[in-house]
Amino acid sequence: MSLHNIAREITIDQIRHLETSIPGPKSTQRHAEREQHVTAGFGVTLPVFVEAADGGIIQDIDGNRLIDFASGIAVTSLGASNKRVAERVAAQIEKFSHTCFMVTEYDSFTQVCKWLNEHTPGDFDKRTGLFSTGAEAVENAIKIARSATGRPNVLVFDEAYHGRSLLTMAMTAKENPYQLNFGPMPREVVRAASANPLRPVYGGSTPDEITEKSLASVRDTLSTHGADTFAAMVIEPIQGEGGFIVPAPGFLAGLREIADEHGIVLVIDEIQAGLGRTGKLYASEWEGVAGDITLSAKALANGVPLSAVTGRAELMNAVHSGGLGGTYAGNPIACEAALAVFEQLDQSVLDNATKIEQTVREVLEPLLEKTNIVAQVRGRGAMLAIELADKGTLEPRPDLARSIALACHAQGVIILTCGTYGNVIRLLPPLIIGEELLRDGLQVLARAIEDAA
Questions:
Q1: Tens-place pLDDT, residues 110-123
Q2: Going by DSSP bridges, is the β-strand pair 265-269/57-60 parallel, antiparallel, or unpaired?
Q3: Are 439 and 446 in contact (CB under 8 A)?
């Protein structure tokens, strides 16, 4: 199904509309009720309650139509009420909602695995396991790597985010809010410097120098801890929560060489960047690098919980029978949703992700010269970010990120912040968003940045 056909099935007007203030009175009342019943441990970006959503619009219970630059954190890439996903899910529920794949089997699980084996990067024989969440995918990748290598340690990188479970918290670089008060953390996780082009830990005046110095530091880190003790090296091809950081060119390829040299399993975490988000099916394709294991989640089933670990057959089959699984792993409803995504994830959708990038850069890159607070506009496809920092010193400005986000929210544009310092605005619009709606939201954001400068 092409982008044109998906767009024809959208039922909500794709126009921003403010019926009340944001949040409106009904949402405010519902939020007060939430606070009486929901743990305070769950945060919220924008306290509005949703009535309907599709395309690039979220409609709240007060009648406001908000532009969606979040996609449920890169999940609803094909729209939050995609018709084909709804059809396949509804048909499956009529048959059965669950059996547990480890008890009795169903074909949709196999077909999702087959598609992933054929479409994830790497020209080698693959096997796939399905799970429910991104963190589960990460943890199972580590289990597989340890089983295959007999080694304990895991190498991760600065600015990394891999999840909220105990092991993935330790693998995540940002302490607050992810690790704060939840220790102690597993000790087998070792962190190395990434190749951040804007803030290189080991310096370098050119991308090549940044890559060279960063890779040298990775080798030093492995040597210090014993390279032969590492089961896995885990990297996001574009670091998500860390600030949408695209590593300096050649860094991923260098990690591939180091992993091969020491027999370390290279795990590429495509949970946020994969499934078309960057204009290719998987972001690692931009670097021409294939992981031994590739992780998928978020957009995989367009909002129905599903994740996947896809890797070399000899690695994936190294685990003993019964060693992998989970009660809800590869639930049949989620598998049908994923198959609906695969039906629609064609070149027209990938091309629109590229067009989204072109439009975003056209509107926002002039702010690099017009203001003293935009340090960088970066990313790929529909995974883009604006880092806010004082020019010259690069002192992070999380205060501006917060105030700009609030200004956008008040005007009906949902945006998220991220980054190690909380000073990055990230844009994750649905891959099917129309250009007129995209430009409207970007103009709101551009004005908010100029007003804050």
A1: 999 999 999 999 99
A2: unpaired
A3: no
